[in-house]
C-alpha cells in the first residue's frame, strides 16, 4: 500500500482519498486541543497560508490517546481550531494513532518513518512530511515547531 491508497473522513464526515493530494507536498499531524503543544496550530496555519498556493497541504488528525487532551466531539474540535487559531487547512475526524484501533493511514506512516526508539507515536503533534509522489520523507518529533520544517517543505516544493 502507498499513501495514496488510504482514505479518511473530514470533520464534516465526507470521505477523502489521499489520492486527492497527488502532486502535492503533504504534512500529516496528529493534533490535540488541550495540549501544551496546541499553540503549534499557529505555526501550522502560518506554513499553510505561506505555501498552499505552491502545493502544500496540511492534514490534521485529532487524537485523544495522550493524557485525554482531545476529549471533545469532532464539532467541538473543529470550532476550537477555527476560533482560536483560524485553522483553514483540512481537519479530519478524531482517530487513534496507536494500538489495535489505529487508523490504517497511521499504521502505514509509522511503518514508513519510525520514531527514535519505536514506531509508535509518542505524543500529540508528531508530524510526517510526504513528497509530491506520495513518499514519506521524514518524521518530526512533537516538539519540532512547524516553522522549523520550512526548509524541508521548500526543498520538496521546488
Automatic annotation (TrEMBL):
Keyword Oxidoreductase attributed: yes
Superkingdom of the source species: Bacteria
Coiled coil: none
UniProt keyword annotations, A-Z: Oxidoreductase, Peroxidase
Pfam families: GSHPx
SUPFAM superfamilies per UniProt: Thioredoxin-like
GO MF terms, alphabetically ordered: peroxidase activity
Domain Thioredoxin, first and last residues per copy: 1-158
InterPro entries: Glutathione_peroxidase, GPX_AS, GPX_CS, Thioredoxin-like_sf, Thioredoxin_domain
Gene3D superfamilies: Glutaredoxin (3.40.30.10)
Signal peptide location: none
Entry's family note: Belongs to the glutathione peroxidase family.
Protein name: Glutathione peroxidase
Amino acid at each position: 500500500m502507498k499513501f495514496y491508497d488510504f482514505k479518511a473522513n473530514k470533520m464534516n464526515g465526507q470521505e477523502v482519498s489521499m489520492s486527492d493530494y497527488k502532486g502535492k507536498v503533504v504534512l500529516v499531524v496528529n493534533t490535540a486541543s488541550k495540549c501544551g503543544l496546541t499553540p503549534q496550530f499557529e505555526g501550522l496555519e502560518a506554513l499553510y497560508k505561506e505555501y498552499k498556493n505552491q502545493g502544500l497541504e496540511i492534514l490534521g488528525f485529532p487524537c485523544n490517546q495522550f493524557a485525554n487532551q482531545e476529549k471533545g466531539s469532532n464539532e467541538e474540535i473543529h470550532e476550537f481550531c477555527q476560533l482560536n487559531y483560524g485553522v483553514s487547512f483540512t481537519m479530519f475526524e478524531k482517530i487513534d494513532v496507536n494500538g489495535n484501533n489505529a487508523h490504517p493511514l497511521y499504521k502505514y506512516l509509522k511503518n514508513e518513518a519510525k520514531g527514535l526508539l519505536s514506531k509508535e507515536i509518542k505524543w500529540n503533534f508528531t508530524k510526517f512530511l510526504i513528497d509530491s509522489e506520495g513518499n514519506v520523507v521524514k518524521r518530526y518529533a512533537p516538539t519540532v515547531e512547524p516553522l522549523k520544517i520550512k526548509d524541508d517543505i521548500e526543498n520538496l516544493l521546488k
